[in-house]
Amino acid sequence: MVPLFPGVPGGPELLVILLLMIALFGLPVVIVAVFGWRYLDRNDQVEELEARVRELESELDADAQESEPDTDDRREE
């Protein structure tokens, strides 16, 4: 005879249900959090690199202006 209402899940069944819930809801949250953190960290690194590039470009401009010869000293050929 089959009971009308099934029994309450025991230990192993509850463990399987818990693992499924973690896989369905917990794992995507962790993945989104990790990728979000990496994206935000990447933006900080990009800003640092852009600032360094601006600094080096200004140094190059300053060096180029110092090394430009005067137009009066040039010989015409």
In short:
With 77 residues, this protein is mostly helical. It has one helix spanning 11-67. The chain is built from one helix and no strands.
Walk me through what this model shows.
- This protein is mainly alpha-helical.
- 74% of the residues lie in helices and 0% in strands.
- The mean pLDDT is 82.
Secondary-structure element order, as H and E? Answer: H
Rg = 34 Å
Shape assignment? rod-shaped
Number of strands: 0
Distance, first to last CA? 114 Å
| Arithmetic mean of pLDDT | 82
Classify the secondary structure makeup into a structural class: mainly alpha
Percent of residues in beta strands: under 5%
Estimated helix fraction: over 70%
Main sheet specs: none
Uncertain segments are none
Please tally the helical runs, counting DSSP H or I stretches of 4 or more residues.
1
